[in-house]
Design a protein that fits this description.
The protein is mainly β. It is built from two helices and 13 strands. 13% of the residues lie in helices and 41% in strands. The strands form two sheets. Strands 1, 5, 6, 7, 8, 9, 10, 11, 12 and 13 form a ten-stranded mixed β-sheet that branches. A three-stranded antiparallel β-sheet has the order 2-3-4, with no helix packed on it. A hairpin with a 2-residue loop joins strand 6 (63-69) and strand 7. The longest helix has 15 residues, at 3-17. It starts with a helix and ends in a 9-residue tail after the last strand.
Length: 159
């Protein structure tokens, strides 16, 4: 078997092994093809829906739990309440409100306690800009380390 043939035979298995990403986000815009959030976008695709009957029912302001792969939503669930414990520990991108901060620790309304470090990237602000009530968009790696904190509207007054 040549290298090319072996590569073509193994490639589908590599694709299947890629895990879906869990996003816990608030919908900003739905044009029927793309779902837009603070600082990110996913293709709607033919995602399975829970909590709404059709994609047009997804409205701005809805809190969503989305499993995505390669930038395409696979499953979308409307969150009526805070994410459950399993979701809270598995997400890779999430939005939440800051309740308090101490040192390198964030206390968030729905996600609980998160720790950042010197390797955490800050967009539109820094740890010095953190105030209770501020909305944050957070990204983690597969190991659960906080990799990025986006302050979507730093000029807004926290709620």
């Amino acid at each position: 078997m040549t290298r090319t043939a072996l590569l073509l035979w193994v490639l589908p298995f590599c694709t299947l092994a890629t895990e879906a990403e869990l996003w816990l986000v608030e919908l900003e815009h739905n044009d029927g093809i793309h779902l837009q959030f603070q600082g990110a976008e996913l293709e709607l695709g033919s995602a399975a829906l829970t909590g709404v009957s059709q994609p047009d029912d997804l409205r701005p302001g809805m809190r969503l739990a989305i499993l995505s792969r390669y930038g395409v939503a696979q499953q979308i669930r409307v969150l009526a309440t805070a994410p459950d414990l399993a979701q809270s520990s598995q997400w890779l991108r999430a939005e939440d409100r800051l309740l308090a901060t101490a040192g390198e620790t964030l206390l968030l309304q729905e996600l609980g306690v998160l720790v950042f470090d010197a390797g955490t990237r800050w967009l539109n602000g820094s740890p010095a800009d953190l105030q209770p009530g501020l909305r944050l968009v957070l990204s983690r790696d597969e190991d659960g380390r906080l990799t990025e904190v986006l302050i979507p509207n730093p000029e807004e007054d926290p709620e």
